[in-house]
Design a protein that fits this description.
This protein is mainly alpha-helical. It contains 11 helices and no strands.
Length: 204
Amino acid sequence: MTSQAADGPDTVAASRRSKLTREREQEFFDAVLDQIRACGYDSVTMEGVAASTRCSKATLYRQWRTKPQFVAAALRASRRTRFDGIDTGTLADDLREAARAAGAWSAKDTRLLQALGHAVTQDPELRTALREALIDPEIDALKQILRRGVERGEVPADHPALDYIPAQIFGVLRARPVLEGKDADPEYIVRFVEAAVLPTLGLT
């Protein structure tokens, strides 16, 4: 009984993962996300990732029992906020900087979102991981930027457009590739912010 208690699921999982360095684990995560961007979620296999990273597929299956679990782990490991550190002192310039940051990553993020589109509707864990990695942190950071603008008195707290600014910015990131066949690069997003977002908020 004592031995079973000592070797519970968490201990066994930690034992499996301890065999990989963090750098090696990140190599697997980068490989699977890059392959999804290039080939689509359905075309990517554990065997293909194993071959590209020169490991045995047993290593991947030992770490992550299924492809959805593997991809979910890769998404969570890729979590970052593009808008960290943006605080120029004015809301208009903060939004311009946020636009540049969003545009710099839009190609990779948009391809990944498009490639995962159907899969995330079928797998709740994958859907949650995608939101935690690529969506929620960015929206939260953008709301903080807007909140600081309100606190400085640049925009009224009850301005009706405030709730829709994240949807505007993230919407155009996703829409341009569909409507125009081009990535929403930094220059394009900055122009959009200056033409549509700032006037909506009464900023110049």
